[in-house]
Structures are given as C-alpha cells and as structure tokens.
Amino acid sequence: MFATGVTIVTARGADGGLVGLTANSFNSVSLQPPLVLWSLARAAASLAAFATGSHYAINVLAADQKALAERFAARGVDRWAGVAHAPGISGAPVLAGAAATFECFNRSRYEEGDHVIFVGEVERCSRRHDASPLLYHGGRFYTEHPLGAD
C-alpha cells in the first residue's frame, strides 16, 4: 500500500555496453554529502555490471514515460532500441525526458536478504521543470493529481 516513484537505473558495463533496469526502490539518504539508495535483486542479470561499475544514473521517470518503464522491466527485449539518451558526466546513460536525473558515484553496497542495496553519491542532478512524475501503486501506474490549494 505504499506508492512510489518509478526510476530507470542506467550504467555502462565493463565492455562499454549499456545496462538499464526499472526500479522503484529509490530513496534519499543524506543531503551532506548528497546520497541516494536503490536496491537490486541478487538474481538480476545486471548485478555484476552495477556491482563492479564506478558510476550509474538514476532516471526518475515522468508520467509520459510509462512505456519506457515497462520496456526496461521486460525480459528478452532490446531495452535500448530507439531510446534517446546521452552520456552523463561519468559515462552512464542519461535518458531524455526524465523528470529528474541523479548521476552517481557507486559509493557502497550492502548485501541484505535477496537484494543488494546500492548507495550512490550524487555528483550531478537535473530536473525537467514541466514534468509530472510517474507513480506506481498496487501493480498499476499512475500520475499525480494535486489534492487542492496549499
């Protein structure tokens, strides 16, 4: 019963290939220094790329990026075909149109249960001013609706 935002975490593998996956296990950790976290199943095929890489980007998806979230969550598809992106400051792909992007140094990892928790130190962040967030709750995607005047 906990609604979350939706992200796509991206990196470059040791071979230079692009790696990316949909994740909703994203959270702020600290403002000083700026730290964020996300988690990945130990059974994930991309675990090695993220565990050994030095940098990754967390792309917070906008409401108009639902299809992208579904693609990067699917198996057996070319996740990157036709996806607009550019290399970030450390080479991790930054997705075009994201509501926000956090470019991170892979600061630490913690193995807990069947997941690995990644803590990233934010080196650069940006946001799309006109974007509404893509939300996920109860197995369905949503977008925001303000509750009223502040």
Give an overview of the whole structure.
The protein has 150 residues and is mostly beta strands. The protein has a single domain, classed as Roll (Pnp Oxidase, Chain A). The chain contains two helices and twelve strands, in the order βββββαβαββββββ. The chain has helices at 47-52, 66-73; strands at 4-5, 7-12, 18-23, 26-30, 35-41, 55-60, 85-87, 93-95, 100-112, 115-127, 134-137, 140-143. The strands form three sheets. A seven-stranded antiparallel sheet has the order 3-2-6-9-10-5-4. β11 (134-137) and β12 (140-143) form a beta hairpin. The radius of gyration is 15 Å and the shape is globular. It starts with a strand and ends in a 7-residue tail after the last strand. The mean pLDDT is 94. It holds the Pfam family Flavin_Reduct. Residues 1-143 form the Flavin reductase like domain. Belongs to the non-flavoprotein flavin reductase family. It comes from Paenacidovorax monticola.
Whole-angstrom Rg:
15 Å
CATH architecture: Roll
Q: What do the pLDDT scores average to? A: 94
Q: Determine and state the CATH class.
A: Mainly Beta
The topology string of helices and strands comes to EEEEEHEHEEEEEE
Organism: Paenacidovorax monticola
GO molecular function: FMN binding; riboflavin reductase (NADPH) activity
Protein name: Flavin reductase family protein
InterPro entries: Flavin_Rdtase-like_dom, NADH-dep_flavin_reductase, Split_barrel_FMN-bd
